[in-house]
Amino acid sequence: MIYDFLFKITDSNIIASIIQSLLPLFIFILPFALFAVWLERKVSAHMQDRLGPMRVGYHGALQTIADILKLVQKEDIIPNEADKPLFNIAPVLVFIGSYAVFAAIPFSGAFIGSNIDLGIIFIIAASGFVVAGILMAGWASNNKYSLLGAMRSAAQIISYEIPTVLVVLTIIMITGTTNLQTLSEMQTGHFWNWMILGGPKFGIAKFIFIPFMIINFIIIYISTLAEVNRTPFDIPEAESELVSGYHTEYSGMKFAMFFLAEYANMFAVSAIVTALFFGGYQSPVGYVGNLFGIHWLIPIEQFFWFTAKGIFFVFVQMWLRWTLPRLRVDQLMTACWKYLIPIAFVNLIIIGLITVL
Amino acid sequence: MNVYDLIFYLFAAITILSAFFVVTTRNIVYSAYYLLFTFFGVAGIYVLLGADFIAMVQLIVYVGGILILLLFGVMLTNKITNVDIKSGTIHTVPATIGVALFAGIILASMWNTNWKNVNSDMQVASTQHLGFLLIHQYALVFELLGILLLIALIGAASMARK
Amino acid sequence: MKEYFNNAWSALYTIFVGMKITFKHLFVPSVTIQYPDVKLQLPERERNRLYVNMDDCIGCDQCARACPVDCITIETVKGIPGEDLGKTSNGKKKALWVTKFDIDFAKCCYCQLCVFPCPTECIYMTDVYEFSEFERSNLIYDFVTLTPQEREDKKNNYAKFEAEKAAEKAAAKPAPATKPIENQETPKP
Ligand code: SF4
Ligand code: SF4
User: Fold this and answer.
1) CA C116 – ligand 1 centroid, Å
2) Fewest CB atoms within 10 A around its CB: which of A220, C22, C110, C154?
3) Atom 4 of ligand 2: nearest residue by CA position
4) By alpha-carbon position, which residue is closest to atom 2 of ligand 2?
5) Does B56 reside within a domain?
């Protein structure tokens, strides 16, 4: 819909698609990152009975902007012994990986970057670039901490991709689609049509699904948490052991790019969880637009619900971060290979059987 | 020449150039990263051919899996990153013959195949089709491949335990 | 098998317990204060920047001698007879002009040892603790209330008086006139 509109004003499909591809960055990721950094600080502060940033703007609301200004002015330091080309490409690659994910995320009925059939699979594929970028950053920095952090990060992301994909597979089995837009449309109506509550089809199967869906949700939430390297799975950036992991050597704008990618990733995984289990952009209670017959309001409402759900899950990520201590590497692998993957497999088989029967 | 052609040539150029650099560069880590772009270019060409599922699998398996494992191997191996790869010319005559033979086979098969012409901007729901083919027509091959991979997996696990 | 599920369950359960605790803390009023705007009540006997009340100082140099890091520098000249130097608040008569009273707060360790020996209790701790500076030399505080001109005058007066006295003595008793050693070091402004 947005594309049609852009096509109408610019009258050229190339310009229209370029503008459309830039939209999520400027209307969503940048403001979201600004907000999320502030939220992170505030949440962490209040959970520790502090106040957090208070001086720039109301309750420190403009603090992130001040920080960005500081980062922009910083000198761009490249270590002498670093591998310069790779060192420069790495943040770009990481950012490309996490930005590409946004192409397939349905923000509302009217706006999805690219409504491809393989939405969720595309997201999984695109995140592969993030791993490559992280390894590149770690290796190019020529610093043992960076390299160790990158290694850990890559190992962790690869391991935790398996439970994620298994859970995604169960959803694909139930719904028969990998298109996130269709998936969201299916869960329309009220919140009891959401996948976490058994999906839109009413019947005996719906109620059998519910416990498995909840387990599925927990598994995918934990594993996506690990994929974006957040505490308790932040051993790639473990400050007490590795300075700050793969981006130890980065400064200025390149560091800002890693930071932006990290926060974009946080929202992306929350968006995936939302789209898969919590009705995507569908409102839980119905639309104001429908009530009064104002139809152009519905996409805006959908956008609101989607971001609200997404930000709620981002908030839960922060909440977990300030609750749980960091896992050890062996515990991390145990949690993935001995707990998440077997349980996800059993879930997959059971749900497969239920769908077939 | 429309947009699709342009994009095709872009991806083709990425693929071929990066493939060329994979074999010529001296630094093994650079090689691995050029391979990333090769895979990416190939995936792009798959998408242009309407095989989007294959493209995604290409990215997941090669970029997300194989390439990372490769990099892991390279980075974890002590001192391998600084070793110059030997790139002198040896056995010129047999090598030329081998390459010529191989190129001949490829070219011959290219010219003799009856290529299907598909409109590049045609939308095909290839995934469903592919699934049907795999489960119905090629079920046996599919299962055999699965068993083969399982054997490889068990073998690797038992070797790792020793 | 049972242990396996127990493990999984206890992990999940304890996560929720932890989350409940942190969630409660989200609404606990903060224990920190907004420092430059709000300040903590200082304890009664806090030790911060020193202050010297020069009206009471008799220039006895006791504080400088007590200081373990020698950060107080005092120079005095005697008043000439007939000059009224005033009295301290507890009735002592002053006999010395203090021409230099510098405290280097870059060195001071706030031990308060200089406060106790003072006979007139004119050196004491204040509650000012925010006095950081960009230049270290700015931390040398000069407490003397006399203007530089006056300080010079006092010194010259005394030197003149001494010289006169020496001249008188020399006149009375023909002895070699010794010039008093003049301390011409100018005090820091
Ligand atoms: S407080 Fe201690 S260090 Fe400071 S001037 Fe007095 S005696 Fe010296
Ligand atoms: S001890 Fe007191 S009176 Fe004596 S010089 Fe120090 S401040 Fe002045």
Assistant:
1) 11
2) C110
3) C60
4) C118
5) yes
Are B73 and B9 found together in one domain?
Answer: yes
Q: Looking at beta carbons, which residues of chain C come within 8 Å of A49?
A: 25, 28-32
Chain B residues lying within 8 Å of A132, measured CB to CB: 33, 36, 63, 67-68, 71
Q: Are A226 and A233 in contact (CB under 8 A)?
A: yes
How do residues C129-166 score in pLDDT, each as one tens digit?
888 889 888 888 888 888 888 888 888 888 888 888 88
Instruction: Pick the closest to residue A316 from A277, A267, A276, A272 (CA basis).
Output: A267
Can you give the three-state secondary structure of A43-68, one letter per residue? HHHHHCCCCCCCCCCHHHCCHHHHHH
- The ipTM is 0.76
CATH number at residue B75: 1.20.120.1200
Q: What CA–CA distance (Å, rounded) separates B50 from B119? A: 9
Q: What is the pLDDT along chain A (357 residues), one digit of tens a residue?
A: 666 677 777 666 677 777 777 777 777 788 888 888 888 888 888 888 888 787 877 887 888 888 888 888 888 888 887 778 888 888 888 888 888 888 888 877 777 777 777 888 888 888 878 888 888 888 888 888 888 888 888 888 888 888 888 888 888 888 877 888 877 777 777 777 777 776 677 677 777 788 888 888 888 888 888 888 887 888 777 777 777 778 888 887 888 888 888 888 888 888 888 888 887 777 777 777 677 777 777 777 788 888 888 888 888 888 888 888 888 888 888 888 888 888 888 888 888 888 877
Q: Which residue, judged by its Cα, is nearest atom 6 of ligand 1? A: C114
- Given a contact cutoff of 8 angstroms between Cβ atoms, the answer to whether A319 and C23 are in contact is yes
Say which residue the tokens 């109506």 belong to.
Answer: A189
Selecting from B72, B81, B127 the residue whose C-beta is nearest the C-beta of A154 gives B72
Based on the fold, state whether residues B4 and B75 are members of the same structural domain.
yes
d(CA B162, CA C9): 33
Residue nearest to atom 6 of ligand 2 (CA): C63
Q: Using a 6 Å cutoff on CB, does residue C77 contact ligand 1?
A: no
User: Global pTM?
Assistant: 0.77
Shortest Cα–Cα distance, C16 to chain A (Å): 9
Number of domains in chain B: 2
Q: Which residues of A touch B71 (CB under 8 A)?
A: 132, 135, 139, 154
Residue of A nearest to C9 (CA): A339
Task: State whether the beta carbon of C52 lies less than 6 angstroms from ligand 1.
Answer: no
Any domain includes B160: yes
B72 with B136, same domain: the answer is no
Q: Cβ of A264 under 8 Å from any chain C Cβ?
A: no
Range of the domain at B45: 1-81
Q: How far is the CA of C164 from the centre of ligand 2 (A)?
A: 30
CA–CA min distance A324, chain C (Å): 7
Q: Residue ranges per domain, chain A?
A: 78-356
Provide the chain A residues 55-94 that lie in CB contact (below 8 A) with chain C.
none
Together in a domain, B19 and B75: yes
Q: Of the candidates A47, A324, A339, which has its C-beta nearest C26's C-beta?
A: A47
Is B96 within a domain? no
